[in-house]
Amino acid sequence: MKAKPKVISVVGARPQFIKLAPLAKELSHRFRHRIVHTGQHFDNNMSGVFFKQLRLPRPYFNLGISGGTHGAMTGRMLARVEKVLLRERPDLVLVYGDTNSTLAGALAAAKLAIPVGHIEAGMRSFVTDMPEEINRKLVDHVSEILFCPTPVSVKNLKAEGIKKRIVYSGDVIYELLKASRPAITDNRKALKKLGVREREYLLLTVHRAATVDSEKNLRVLIDIISELPWPTLFPVHPRARKRLKQFKLWRELSQIDRLFLIEPLSYLDTLTAARYAYAVLTDSGGLQKEALFLGTPVLTLREETEWIETLKLGNNLVGLDKAKILKLLQVKPSVKSMVYRVKNKKPSHIIAEEIARFLKRRLSRGS
Ligand code: UD1
Q1: What percent of the chain is helix, strand and coil (3-state, nearest 5)?
Q2: Over the chain, what is the mean pLDDT?
Q3: In angstroms, rounded to a whole number, what is the distance separating the alpha carbons of residues 258 and 246?
Q4: Which residue of 41, 75, 129, 318 shows the fewest CB atoms closer than 10 Å?
Q5: Is 70 part of the annotated catalytic residue set?
């Protein structure tokens, strides 16, 4: 009997573990699926707890590469992923989202003429110097199959003249959230542990370079936080913590009344906190959607979003504008629930089927 085709997923950062979760089972049914963890995120609460809670198989390789400048990090990953690919010789490499791990995985594979599949292809903020935008564009242009979560992302790829296989798969984040909804609702007890009461607190997260790498923006953020009208849960991302300490702002922040500075939360606790919050304030791409899926108002602390469709559904782009934020929080913003789905199929199913079809064609041509 012929061995199943081999597919390697390269992941490294927290949002990628989430995107991989709904796919992992499908992929291991159909292929010899191996997970390569670059090591970009390594703390237990940024990585280990996600593998455990989302029941992801242990990574086949963990490359242990994290930190450093973008160039140094990506370069080290590129060399190490290439080594793995030369050894493993997969039939396809899957990459997820827009981080340095995505770029390194895609580039290493493309240079070895191994086809690349990109999950969450076609997302654009049109902010050309944003690190994630650079990664997304480069990865889309070296990929052979592009799995788009939304109709707008399909359009973006076509507008860039990409002629490779573009598949509207729907959104794997939505798929995971839908499957996890009962557990999220049941996990209400987490609120007690977090010290907040249903609909009487805000959930705040920031991690983007544009927000936290600027001392000026961090000062503006602290000013905003000090005037928020509700107790606020703030799980602090390692990048934000590092910058707050570097700019000597940590003490000032920690003295704000009714602000709970906590460690990053697990998938389930994050979504429970979002589900029961009065509103979510975030610069995250994933969380702005997840909160809307859960019916919680969202104030996105950026000037733009890749998830254009969310603007019609109650996503409020507020940047770091204190007056706007405080005004919106007074009149609880409305939310329309949103669904990205292709007919009644699961995105993970569409993706795995499409990969199987692609590899069948390719491998039969090669043999
Ligand atoms: C990365 C992604 C970003 C994604 C985010 C999700 C890039 C360019 N950016 O940003 O797109 O939205 O992940 O979280 O890839 N650190 C720890 N412990 C950890 C993880 C990170 O201490 O578990 C430290 C790192 O050493 C580094 C800093 O936090 O000093 C930032 O981490 P890094 O991986 O460079 O990027 P993120 O800001 O997490």
Answers
A1: 50, 15, 35
A2: 95
A3: 24
A4: 129
A5: no
351 DSSP β-pair partners: none
Dihedral angle of Cα 69, 71, 76, 79, to the nearest 10 degrees: 170
- The amino acid sitting at 131 is P
Whether the CA torsion 300, 301, 306, 312 is positive or negative: it is positive
Catalytic pick from 70, 207, 237, 349? 207
Instruction: Provide the residue type at 166 as one letter.
Output: I
Q: What one-character-per-residue DSSP string does 155-215 give?
A: HHHHHTT--SEEEE---HHHHHHHHHHHHHHHTTHHHHHHT--TTSSEEEE---HHHHS-H
Tell me the backbone φ, ψ of residue 355, rounded to 5 degrees: -65, -40
Alpha helices (H) along 215-284: 215-226, 238-246, 250-254, 267-275
Mean pLDDT of 204-229: 97
Q: What is the pLDDT of residues 96-137, one digit of tens each?
A: 999 999 999 999 999 999 999 999 999 999 999 999 999 999
**Nearest CA residue ID for atom 35, ligand 1:** 67
Mean pLDDT for 144-166 is: 97
Per DSSP, the residues of 101-123 read HHHHHHHHHHHTT--EEEETTT-
Cα separation, 164 vs 141, whole angstroms:
9
Residue 33 sits at φ, ψ, to 5 deg, of -100, 130
The share of the chain scoring above pLDDT 90, in percent, equals 90
pLDDT tens track for 9-67: 999 999 999 999 999 999 999 999 999 999 999 999 999 999 999 999 999 999 999 99
Cα–Cα nearest to 25, from 215, 250, 175, 183: 175
Contact between 18 and 173 under an 8 Å Cβ cutoff? The reply is yes
CA pair distance 23, 27, nearest whole angstrom: 6
- Ligand 1 centroid to 241 CA: how many Å? 11
What percent of the chain has pLDDT above 70? 96
Ligand 1 atom at minimal distance to the Cα of residue 97? 11
Identify the residue whose C-alpha is closest to ligand 1 atom 7: 99
Distances (CA, A) of 208 to 44, 61, 195, 214, 304: 20, 28, 26, 10, 13
